Amino acid sequence: MYRSISKSKLNFIMKFKVYLIIFAFVVKSTESKAAENNKSSNNTKVVALVNAQQKAFELYINEQYTPFTEQEEWKFFVEIVTYYNNNPSKFLNVNPEKQRQFKSAVHLLSHAMSNSTDESAKSWLESLKKTSHNINFLWNLDWDSLTPKEEAQSQAEPISSLNGF
């Protein structure tokens, strides 16, 4: 006989999958930091902005890029990264407008940091890029099939439609 699963059990199973995937990202980032500590100091490794790294990054940005921290984009950036680290359910339910604002903040911050000659800025920039990549990956994941969502944006015309070119 075929036994059905109640909605509450199904919701629990789906939430468990979501938490497990986010936990895996956080653990992987933490393992990366531990591996970096075991390697020589000359060989730097990019670490995502998780927990203590997030606080150190915020302190660095507050000291080096004070005008940026006074903008609304910085508040959105900190909010999203905090959700990413501490509150997965809020993180996954961020509305598209806040997602767009986060991406805008990452773009502005990346641009400012890429123009710097400071070595720590380059290191933090790589951490920013890695964290942004992880966040965008999780937002673009279809949680029912655990595959990347298909982009709804209009695609360019196929090569065959270029009239013989």
Secondary structure elements and their pairing?
Elements: H1 7-38, H2 52-64, H3 66-69, H4 72-86, H5 88-92, H6 96-114, H7 119-139, E1 141-142, E2 147-148
Antiparallel strand pairs: 1-2
Helix pairs in contact: 4-6, 6-7
Distance between the termini: 59 Å
- Report the mean per-residue pLDDT as an integer: 78
Strand numbers in spatial order across the main sheet: 1-2
| Main beta-sheet strand count, sense and barrel state | 2 strands, antiparallel
Would you identify the regions where 5 or more consecutive residues have pLDDT less than 50?
38-43, 152-165
Residues in helices, as a percent range: 55-70%
SS elements, strand count: 2
What integer value in Å does the Rg equal?
20 Å
Structural class: mainly alpha
Proportion of strand residues:
under 5%
H/I helix tally: 7
Principal-axes geometry comes out as elongated
- What string gives the helices and strands in order? HHHHHHHEE
Structural account:
This protein is mostly helical. It has a domain at 47-140. It has helices at 7-38, 52-64, 66-69, 72-86, 88-92, 96-114, 119-139, and strands at 141-142, 147-148. Strand 1 (141-142) and strand 2 form a beta hairpin. The radius of gyration is 20 Å and the shape is elongated.
